[in-house]
Description:
alpha+beta; 30% strand; binds coenzyme A
Amino acid sequence: MQTIKIRSSQADDMLSIERLYPDAFPDEDLLPLVRQLLTEEPGILSLVAQAGVTVVGHILFTTCGITASDIKAALLAPLAVAPKWQRQGVGTALIREGLEQLKPTGIAQVYVLGDPAYYGRSGFKPETGVAPPYPLPAQWREAWQSLNLDSTSAPDHGTLMLPEPWLQPALWRP
Ligand SMILES: CC(C)(COP(=O)(O)OP(=O)(O)OC[C@H]1O[C@@H](n2cnc3c(N)ncnc32)[C@H](O)[C@@H]1OP(=O)(O)O)[C@@H](O)C(=O)NCCC(=O)NCCS
C-alpha cells in the first residue's frame, strides 16, 4: 500500500476537501458545515491524510465545553475517507493522530456520534452522562460515545457546548 501521510490541513486543501466529502458521503451534504468550521471557528483541529499528492481522508475535531464542568472537551466529526481508500487504516490513522495532538492541549474528553463497531476500535465507549446538544432518537443512543484522554474522572452529567455551526438539529438526527 502507498504510504499515507497525516498532516494539518492548509487553506489550499479546501478544493480537495470539497471533492472528498460528496464522494465519502453521497447521501449527505456536510460541506457547508465543514466550510463553516474551517473558515469561521477557532479551536478546530483539521487533519488530512495524503497519498502521494492526493488528499484521501479528512478529520475534524471541534474543541468545546461541557455545562456544569470546567473540563475541556472536543467533538470528533466529521471523518471522511475516499471510497477507494476505505478499509486500509486511513480513518484509524486520522483518529489516532488527532487524539495524539489533542492530548497535550489539555482536552480531557473526546465525544463522537458514530458507529460503535468502528469507533470502539479506537477506544471510544458508550456515553450516558454528558448529552449532545439535542436529544438523540432512540436508535442513535448507542452511537453517542466518548473517550477519556487523561486520568481526570469524566463528567457524569452536563451537555456539550458546541459553537454555532453545530447547533442545527438536522445534524443530530437520522
Ligand atoms: C467510516 C470510515 C471513516 C472508516 O474509515 P476507513 O479508513 O475505511 O476505516 P479503517 O480502515 O481505519 O478501519 C476499517 C475497519 O473498521 C471496521 N469497521 C467497523 N465498522 C465500520 C464502518 N462503519 N465503516 C468502515 N469500517 C468499519 C471494518 O470492518 C474494518 O476492519 P477490517 O479491516 O478488520 O475489516 C470510512 O469508511 C468513511 O469515510 N465512510 C463514509 C463516511 C462515514 O460514514 N464517515 C463516518 C462519520 S461518523
